[in-house]
Specification:
Layout (H helix, E strand, L loop, with lengths): L3 E9 L3 E6 L2 E6 L2 H5 L6 E11 L2 E7 L2 H10 L7 H10 L2 H10 L2 H4 L7 H11 L11 H19 L4 H14 L7 H15 L1
Parallel strand pairs: 3-5
Antiparallel strand pairs: 1-2, 1-4, 2-3, 4-5
Keywords: ATP-binding, Cytoplasm, DNA damage, DNA recombination, DNA repair, DNA-binding, Helicase, Hydrolase, Nucleotide-binding
GO biological process, one term: DNA repair
Family: Belongs to the RuvA family.
């Protein structure tokens, strides 16, 4: 079993990165926040989970062991596969997810694309007692902070300045009315806004 991957970042895509380890390029599917923390040509260490299927071997990469452990816990819930577990970690921080599961916050869980009300209720029922200690930070505050930082890091990683990234994040935040969209959608919106100013 592959528990972690350390090497030089060869490339970063929309949903995956390639890390060269001993001359072999390993492709890891990652959440936007994890991808935003990487830089091509630099050394990186990612916690990893290998998902084995009849027709594929897929590596999922995480910024730390905490995120990986929550991903693996989510997989134990009925009806939750790797893509849905990763989508949950793309929309919410690990702390926000743990808080939502622990407190039965169905509305927070249903903000994840692919999780409906019944699915969220089933996840709460199955995982509530397994999530471990929950941070005192409210789920809402943790989530808002998480997406702004992830989008900001993503923009800087794509070549914009910190000031431009801050400006775009503020502009995107002003457009949100209701549930927070997934981070990839927010990042695309920020890129569109910056594209108009270039």
């Amino acid at each position: 079993m592959i528990a972690s991957v350390a090497g030089i970042v060869a490339s970063i895509g929309a949903d995956a990165t390639v890390v060269e380890v001993g001359g072999v390029g390993l492709r890891l599917l990652c959440a936007p926040g994890t991808l935003a923390s990487l830089r091509v040509g630099q050394q990186a260490r990612l916690s990893a989970t290998l998902i084995v299927r009849e027709d594929s071997l897929t590596l999922f990469g995480f910024v730390d062991d905490d995120e990986k452990q929550l991903f693996e816990l989510l997989l134990t819930a009925s009806g939750v596969g790797p893509k849905l577990a990763q989508a949950a970690l793309s929309v919410h921080t690990p702390d926000a997810l743990r808080a939502a599961l622990s407190h039965g916050d169905v509305s927070t869980l249903t903000q994840v694309p692919g999780i409906g009300k019944k699915g969220a209720e089933r996840m709460v029922l199955e995982l509530r007692d397994k999530v471990g200690p929950v941070s005192a930070v409210p789920a809402q505050g943790g989530r808002v902070q998480a997406w702004t930082e992830q989008v900001r890091q993503g923009l800087v990683g794509l070549g914009w300045s910190q000031a431009q990234a801050d400006q775009a994040v503020t502009a995107v935040a002003e457009t949100i009315d209701g549930p927070t969209p997934p981070v990839p959608a927010l990042l695309k919106q920020a890129i569109r806004m910056l594209g108009k100013t270039r």
